[in-house]
Specification:
Elements (H helix, E strand, L loop, with lengths): L1 H34 L27 E6 L5 E5 L19 E4 L5 E5 L11 E7 L5 E8 L5 E8 L3
Antiparallel strand pairs: 1-2, 2-3, 3-4, 5-6, 6-7
Amino acid sequence: MRRMIVTGFVLLVFVAVVVGLIPQGMGRAGAAQVLQIPGREVPTFQVDPSWPKVPSKWVMGPVSGIAVDSQDHIWVITRPREVETSDTLGGKPAAPPLMEFDMAGNFIKGWGGPGQGYEWPNAEHGVTVDYKGNVCRSVTQRKARATQTQQISTCPRT
């Protein structure tokens, strides 16, 4: 019995030492790799307040996803239900949930949202464009009693 306890204790100490050394060794290797890349700097970005150019009749909602297609057009998906159309915004309605812009930020087209005979899901999450140019959106449809169904819809580009 005593032999089992001593063996278990030795095994436990061995595992603790090995687990304790692995992260330290990985940290040193990672630091060495970073130090071996001379001349590389962290990129800096600057906000362009004129991009994108949303038509003046709309207010853009919070952006939840961005994608770039093969023509370098930028697809933006927003959450129009979170826009408050108040007097401070001139009473303008929210822009469509899915909008396409060129590289200069010029509006090309927008679409989506609830319509006659079609219920648009109520929470937009992301957008991607496949190699065929199909624009795909990731959305959540919230149902009664707080259950949620995740849906991914493919929308052909027209």
